[in-house]
Each structure stands twice: as structure tokens, then as C-alpha cells.
## 1
Amino acid sequence: MSALLTVLTVPDVSGAAVHVWQRNFDVFRRIWRTESLGIGLEPWIVILAMGFGLGRFVELESGESYIHFLAPGLMAMFPMFAAIFECGWGAFMRLEMHRTYEAVLTTPASVDDLVTGEILWGTTRATFNGMYILLVLLILGPWTSAIDSWWAVLILPVAVLQGFLFSSLAMSFAALARAMSHFGYLFNVIVMPMFWLSGGFFPLENLPGWAQRVAWFMPLVHSVELNRAVLTGDLHWGLLVDVAWLLVGCWVFYRIALALMRRRLVV
């Protein structure tokens, strides 16, 4: 009961959360060249290798080209990884190794300010990644035809939603982890199943019924569905279910992250 009450407690968030975000942004401005090297190259490599390479040997029943099918998945996966790494491994380093959180909490900022600022920063990194992947697809548009509609601009709100959700999820795990090696559980038990069962690499309809039902509960599936709809312009009312799922996930994992980090940092 006490744990439930902790989760439901109204967040003690003030303008200090923005300063936590600003602190992370200022650090990023100093190291953006090295931080951006991987994300700068990886989408091109994945699209070339899987879209133009492997895609030549893949035939979908719908007749759709594989790179066209792959694009919405990439639009969901790269923002997810940005949020997970920033608020998972990155948050743990700031918590345990750099002692950044101790320094922040000597200011008027509360634990909830700290957690909220961190999650907002993870959301920002995820959105940056989403914007970059969209730019890559636009550049490769003449060869991939991955973007069929102006509704593709809605990729960015989807990236914000999933960025907040996955940042909150990663912060929850960071609050529980006692060693960097523990993040292997986050990656192998949570992230990789979502990665492969998101519907981004192959149609989920080809899976057994029980696997499809399990996959439906994974947030990345709903991000991929939204991305596929806006990239093709095939919008329908059923997408509201996907939006609602992501919004509920944002709220649940945010409250869990707050509760767990309060328990970790408040002695």
C-alpha cells in the first residue's frame, strides 16, 4: 500500500527541472561531435545493408518493397535507443560514477525535478534522432520512396511520446541497478524483444497468435504502427488506440521512475 501511495503522490516538480535539462544540454553542446558520430553513420549503414542489400532477397506478400516496409521501424527504433541509453546507462553514470545527482540535490531542485529534467533530456535526444532519421529518408527518397505523405511530419510527435516513455522506463531501471552490468538485463530482457517483435523487420501477422498478443503489449509496436500510418498517409481511427497506449505508458513509467528514484536518493 505504501508503495502504491508513493507512485500516486503528486510530483514535486518546479522550474528547476528545466535547469536539469539545461545542464545536460550544455554538456551535449561540448561533446556533440563525438556523441553524434554513431547516430550520424548508423542509419545510412542500416538502410544500405538491410534496405538495399538484404531487401533485394525479401519478398513481402503485400508486394511492398522491403525498404519501404523497414522505414517506419527504423523511425521508431533509433529514438528508442537514444532514450534508453541516455536515461539508462547515462543516468546511472551521473548517479553513481560522476555523482552529478548529489550535486544537483544540494540545490533547491527536488528529486522529482531531477528525474523530470533527465526524462525531458532523454525525450529531447529521442526527438533529435527522429528528426535525423526523417532527414535521411527524405534525402534517400528518390531511391527508397519511403515517405508517401506530408503526414510524415507527425513522426516528430510520435518520437516525443516514445522518447518520454522509454526515458521513463530507463530511469526506472537506473534507480534499481546497482552495477553497470545490470543493464544487460534491461537490454536483453526488455529492449531486444521489443526490437525484434516490433513489427519493424517483418509483419507480425506471420507470428503465432500468442506471440502477436504478447507483442501488442510492447510499446515499440504502437510506435511502429503510428510511424507506418503517417509515412504512408493511411490514417484511421484505430490509431487512437496506439496513441492512448503510449500516453498511458508515459504516465505509468514516469510515476514509477519518480517513486523508485525517490527511494534511491532520499535517505
## 2
Amino acid sequence: MPITTEQIKDLRDQTGVSIMQCKKALEEAGGDPAKALVILRKKSGEIAAKRGDRTFGAGTVQAYVHSTGNVAAMVVLMCETDFVSGNEEFKSLARDIAMHVTALNPKFLSKEDITEQDRATAKEVFLNEIKDQLQNKPKEIQQQMQDKILEGKLATYFGEMVLLDQPFIKNTEMTIQAMIDSAVQKFGEKIAIARFSRFSAIER
């Protein structure tokens, strides 16, 4: 199947990677845009992993203030060189992440930031709910079902709170981590969120 300019442009708009990389992914996928997207994201993750041992030497601090003026967020996005940190697309990525933080209010940057106390508290709440749900089930299967349900509930609960695991608000097919991996592929440098803060005039 011939690869069209429109297909390449659409894929580039979705991923931000180079035209040549998009063309190559489409050729590898036999012209299937969905498969090409998977190929690019897989390669982004592999490239990001290879650059994991590099050191940060630059970065940008970007902020987003909601139109209401009541909520805002700041994000520190790190990279290796001033060349990338001064790039407008890199700054735009940081601003998009700040906008996402403003909207979804994540509590943790990564899964590693979830404390044992956080887990214990959530586990206690969910266990009480699950026991009520399973009280009429045979005792021999209660424990097995309880463990499985608890695992799923905890994964969902904390998944919604971890910034890197959240689907990007402007494109829910891509997580924040996938966006960063794509940026690593695009800029050729190690990139990571160092920290983020959200501010609200009215705490809820």
C-alpha cells in the first residue's frame, strides 16, 4: 500500500516525531496508521530507556493558569542541553503538562512516590467495601476473590492519581509518560519531569 503525504502529516501531528520516522513507521506497518502509531510509541519507549543513564544539565519551568484565575500549576521539565531547553516545542510540552496538572490534580509523579501509608489507608477502605460485597459468597472463594478485587481497585485508584500514568487531557490515547517518551525520540535527549505543583485559590 502506497504511503501518502497526508498519512505522514497526520502521524506527525499525533506524535511530534520527524517526518522521516513517521514515513518509516508507516512503511513498517504496511500503511496502517494505527499500527504505525504503536510502532512509534514502542520505539519511543525503547529510546527513552537507552537514554536513562544520561545526566540532566538543563530544563524549563512553565506554568499554566486556568481562565477562571482560581487554579494554576507549575512544572519543571528537565533535559540535557540548553539547546533543547530553549526550544519552543519543548517549552510547549512543559506548558501542556502544567495544563494537565491544573485540570486533573495528580497527587503523585510516579508509582514509586506512593508511600506505604497511602497504600495501607486505601487498602483498609477498599477491604471494608469488598468484605461487604462478598459476605454472601462461599468462604472458600472469598479470600481469592477479595485479593483479586483489591488488586484491581488499588491499581485503578492510584492509577488515576499518578501523573505519568494519566491519559493526557488533550489526547486520551496517550499517557503523560508516552508524551515524554515521544519527546525523547524527537529531541534525542533524556527528558523527565523533575517536579510539579498545583495551586488553588479554593481548596476542595
## 3
Amino acid sequence: MADLLRPTFECTVPVEPARAEGLIRGVYERDGSPFVGQSVRSHMLITVERGRRHFWSPWVHVDVNPASDDSHASHVYARFSPAPSVWTGFMLTYIALLTIAMITGCWAFSQWMLDQPPTMLWGVAIPALLAIAMLWSARVGQRLARAQMRMLHDAVRGALEPAGDSSVGS
């Protein structure tokens, strides 16, 4: 199932994992790069430089692992997300809405069991509507960040393409 909130791409490249990591690090380590990043072992986090960043600017998390069928190849998995602080706030808000919906749902069920009108069902409907609004805002944010997502995608994929070799797959 596709992740609507955090788009992904992956590929297998005919280079060893350590070399693939170095090629991807070059995306943000070379002089004049429009990207910044950091890495811990085979995991890298890359985004656009601070001057170009806005609220919806994407960050791409890249993991490089040995390919399962070839020890001299690498499997690269990349997932886009908003800034870590934005993503954390987004998910905590979803958790809070779910908690409110569950509590008010239990309250409404209790009202129903006591032969009272389940007026607390509004406490389920309102968080559900807010969650839908948040999903919609995330989709709008992805559209606003599309150009930067394309830049990051092309930079990572371009770094992995060996000179003259178009064997990088999706």
C-alpha cells in the first residue's frame, strides 16, 4: 500500500553499499550544494538549504543496504517527509484526536446503554473531521513542496547513476 503522507522511492544500484553511501553524501557535502544533510552509518537525512526552506519543505530519509541477491549491489530506499518537528507535531495531533474520539465514543456508548441520547457522538465526529482536514492539508503541503521533492529525488537518483549507465531502477 502506498504511503499517502510520506512518498517513497527505491532502487537497486550496481555498486557496493559503502560507495553508494559516499555517492549520496556527495549530494550535500560538495561545495555549492543547494542541500544540507547528515548521516549515521547507512542512514542519511537530506533537505534543501536553510535559505530555500519553508514550512512544507521536504526532507528525504535515505537508507542504503546490501542488495539481497548481489553482494556487490546496493538497495537504496528513500522516504520523503516534512521536517522532523512538523512530522512529530502532525502525528501527536493525530494521536490526540484519536484519544479524544475514543474517550467520547465510550462516553456516547455509555449514554446509549443508559437509554439516553448519545449526544457525545459529536465528540467522535469532530476529531474525525479535523483528521480529514489535516490529511487534506498534508496533500496541499505536498503539492507546495513538489518542486523541492523533485530536486531531492533527482539529486539522489542522479548521484547513484554511474557515468553512462542507466541501470538505476525504480
## 4
Amino acid sequence: MAADPSPEQASDLAVTWYGHSSVLIEVDGFRILADPVWGERVSPSPTIGPARLHPVPVALSALPEIDAVIISHDHYDHLDLPTIDELTRERDVVFCVPIGVGGHLRAWGVPDGRIVELDWDQAHTLTRDGKSLKVVCTEARHFSGRGLTRNSTQWASWSLVGPEHAVFFGGDTGFTERFKLVGDHFGPFDLTLLPIGAYDPLWPDVHTNPEEAVAIHVMIAKPGAPLVPVHWATFNLAFHDWSEPVERLLAAAREAGVATIIPMPGGRVDGARAAGPEDWWSRVG
């Protein structure tokens, strides 16, 4: 495993991508860990189900201090029991989750005082060194469920709103024009993290394709703000080729005039500098 690239102090705007939807977001001096999945499989079984296509790039224990963990919903590729267990034991961090997901965490031994359950448009405020960051549970178009249980918990995107910058984490979602309302209320955003993989014509309402991710970015982001793709490259969850999502994303982004930042797994990028992405995926795909 590589060393974590994070500096001692969180920056105003940066992202470290660990694969799939697992990212460490730096906003105005705060660090938010989103949808952390360090497990080998995204499945109820340790031996059956989608396994990693690349190793975990950085040990969970090597991550810097974290102010909060946000979870988009309870699917196995976004809510991982071994990861939550390690974070609970090793770190005194709050978990911000959609309504109902707290039930999973309580069953896994997370203390109730470290669980913040929010409905859409509700916020939890973090404070550090005289600054505050609003962690807002925002709308998404998806579904939830583990095992045979379906839609007993909420799903969400997250808007992180600081004194100087705002970041949008899409989590896992299908396309909806209603994201414009999120941008109107909590943006426009300085950086977006939007899902681009695991799409298929058979399930258009729950997973955005790359062109739809670009369309969402245009609706909610500041002009010139970068898009960082998530929900691709780590688990085989659909029928498209491994590198197809990023290739389609780049074509759509060029046509729309949208800047993109595409780090390698484990790579940290400065969100204020959106230089053209280096093509690393064709070398490993």
C-alpha cells in the first residue's frame, strides 16, 4: 500500500479518491470521508459477490484526522461493515447518514451519540478552529436495501457548505432535473463528485451514465468548477467495459466545456487546479 498523500492540515478544496465512491474531501479546513469501503467484496458473503479490481491503495488506519463520515445509502458498495467497525473502534468520528441507516450502525455497535440521521435538506454543523461546515443531506434518485429488505432506509446525496467553498457528493443516483434545486439552495458548487459507472439501459432511474453526470454538474456547479468522477473502476457492477465510463465522461465534458479531474486510486488532487487529466486508466485497464 502507498502512503496517504494528505497534508497535516486540510486544505480549502481537495479530494483523495480511494476507488469506487470512497473519497476524502477537504473543504475549508475540514476533512469528510464519504462512502468508505475498504472491504474486499461488496456482498453479504465474504466469498461470493463483486470483488475488488484493484487493491485498497491506502490503509484505513493511515488516513489523517477526519471530522465526519458521510454515507449515501445502505447498499454494500457504499456501506461496508468491516470499514465501519474499524472506524468505530479506532476513531472518535461522527457518522452522518440518511434516515434509517442509523439502524444498521447501532446494530454494528456504533454509539448512538456518534450517529446523526438526517432527512433531505436537513443539516448537521461541524465546528473547528472558529470555522463551521454545514453537512447537508440532499436529494438523490436511487433505492436502498441489504439482503432481502428493500427501501426501508433513505438514500441521499450530500452538500458540504463551508464559509468559502461548497462541494457536492452525488453518492449513487440516477438523473433528475431536481438536482438544479440542490444547486440553487446549497451551491453553486466549487467541485462536484458524481457517479459515472455501473449504468445500463435496464436501470436508467438509479445510475447516471457519464453524459448525465456532466449534465448534473452543469446544473449545479460554478463556471469552471471541476468534476471528479466516482462510482467506477473498483467493482464490476454492470456490463460495460472497465474504462468506458471515463472515456465517455471525457468526451461529454469536452463538448460541454466542463473541467475534469481524474485521480488514480489513492491519488490526491487540488480541487482549485483542474489541469487536463493524465490518462492512467488505459495503461491498467
